Amino acid sequence: MGLEHIYPMSKSKVFKSNPNFSMIDHKEQDEGIRCPECGSMNIIRDWERAELVCSSCGLVLMDSMIDTNRIARRAYTAEEKEAREHNGAPLSSMLPNYGLTTKIDKICKNRRFLRIKQWHTRLDWPRRNLLIATNEIRRLAGLLGLPKQVQEQAAILYRKVFKLKLLRGRSINSFVAACVYLSCRLTGIPRTLKELCKYSKSRPKTIRHSIHIIVRELNLKIKALNPTELISSFINKLKLHSDTERRALEIIQLGKEANIILGKDPKGVAAAAIYIACIENGERRSQNTISTATGITEVTLRNRYKELLEILS
Predict the structure, then answer these.
(1) Looking at residue 36, what DSSP letter applies?
(2) How confident is the model at residue 11 (pLDDT cuts 50, 70, 90)?
(3) Does some domain include residue 202?
């Protein structure tokens, strides 16, 4: 018995099995697809369910396929609009249910459906927890000026933390701040922990502890922050010229080649490079002004200044 009898699907969407017909638009296009269960080459692509199905044994080889045949072009007729229309909004990790939600119409006056609607709108604790977390992620991202990519990455990290049950007895806000900071590091967005702690509702010590827990439990590989990534933001705070920024980047590059900035605080290295560049370009800024803008002490600034000055001399 063919799969068309036991697996209902639209006639327009059923492809006849043909060994010479390529079923996917990936690397296997020239090689063909073989069912791993029965070894059959009779594969059916069902666009209504977005699945790739073996017509011999019924095994679903692939699901949630993306229809790349519909090109996002203008539609001038109703038929073209229907053919090119993609229904539904894209999935988002920033929503508690990824955006896959349903709503009961308000017009319904049946008491039974009203009761069902009341229970449908109630959130259980997991979804309520994710709703609180995503709202906090949006708030921190808005204050720090973070792109949507960082927000999505932070939401994904928080979902993993929640599934591992690491939040028991711990603060939601501290883990949200930790996820936002780690997502900035993973995506290469230069934001320091001090900037994040300024807008977070948790204490810096609690946020650092949460970061260590997430890195250990999720086995994340976080690269050290590059001092060159901090130069632009520090230059804007101090209102310095672009020539000073360019010279500070050159000084940091010389420090990397001499291997004297390894293991040093990137904020201190960036601040010292800016201080030297200011002196060379005649833009006077005191050590107190630079240390306050970069979030370090004057002692750290002087130590990094002496180390970089040895290379330049």
Answers:
(1) T
(2) very low
(3) yes
pLDDT at 30: 27
pTM: 0.63
- Residue with structure tokens 């020239």? 30
Written as six digits, the tokens of 137 are 């992620």
The last residue of a domain, from among 189, 218, 247 = 218
Task: Let me know whether 1 and 79 are in one domain.
Answer: yes
Residues facing residue 239 across a β-bridge:
none
Residue type (1 letter), 160: K
DSSP H helices in the chain: 3-6, 78-84, 111-121, 125-144, 148-163, 172-187, 193-199, 204-218, 228-238, 242-258, 266-281, 287-294, 298-312
End-to-end CA distance of the chain: 85
Query: What pLDDT is recorded for position 256?
Result: 86
Domain that holds residue 284: 228-312
The enclosing domain of 271 has a CATH number of 1.10.472.10
- Asked whether residue 103 is assigned to any structural domain, the reply reads no
Integer Cα distance of 141 and 19 in angstroms: 51
Could you write out the DSSP letters of every residue in 165-227?
A: TTTTTS-HHHHHHHHHHHHHHHHT----HHHHHHH-SS-HHHHHHHHHHHHHHHT--PPPPPT
